[in-house]
TrEMBL record, chain B:
Domain RNA polymerase sigma-70 region, first and last residues per copy: 12-76
TM segment ranges: none
Family stated for the protein in its record: Belongs to the sigma-70 factor family. ECF subfamily.
Gene Ontology biological process terms, A to Z: DNA-templated transcription initiation
Gene Ontology MF annotations: DNA binding; sigma factor activity
Pfam assignment, any one: Sigma70_r4_2
Official protein name in the record: RNA polymerase sigma-70 factor (ECF subfamily)
The organism of origin for this protein: Rubricella aquisinus
Keywords: Sigma factor, Transcription, Transcription regulation
Amino acid sequence: MPEAKNKRGNSASELDRQIEENLRRAYEDTLKEAIPDEMAQLLQKLKSQGEGASK
Amino acid sequence: MSHRDPREEMVDYIPSLRAFARALTQNHAAADDLVQDAIVKAWANIDKYKVGTNLQAWMFTILRNTHYSNLRKHRREVEDVDGNHAAKLAEKAPQDSAMIFNDFKTAFMQLPVDQREALVLVGASGYSYEEAAEMCECAVGTMKSRVNRARTKLAELMQLDEGEDVITTEGTALASLGGSAVA
């Protein structure tokens, strides 16, 4: 793998900051999304199956 | 003091599981399928979870293992090397600093999967290198190096002019995965 070079040395820290910021933003955007119904239903189903089995 | 039943807590981790899954799969539908598989497995193996330890980390590990095991079984499902998905993601970005964000997402999807997961675990989810290394079953030094290489590569990609061709590394990552661990 070739060594990555900073073509513009003075912008490296700015780029690092942007990377950090955008990484978090992409992650947090996903966290804000509502849980899909099928996942909530899946948990509900697993829960009721467990209750059925333990009785 | 009693802990909540960990199964009751699983729902709280669905959003972060989805975020992690998207970094691994590059496809939202596949990511959600993966999350569902991971939930079923976590539920079935709840007796193996040590109460009081990090449930999110435990579920991330299950999700990750499920992903790689699926990959070995159905390698075709993850192929998105033409970057269509990255382009789709990019369309939805809001306006402010949208260009940088788009560049970032496009660049992120060009990283090898081991670097993407390293960045999500350490850079976005806030796990320590040690924790992330444990979850990915690699050495701490390897985790550090993945994060560093990912950051360097992103910086490099984000400096390229739009439209400039970049060789995607995904194919290589998948090939090496398949090659090393074929059952």
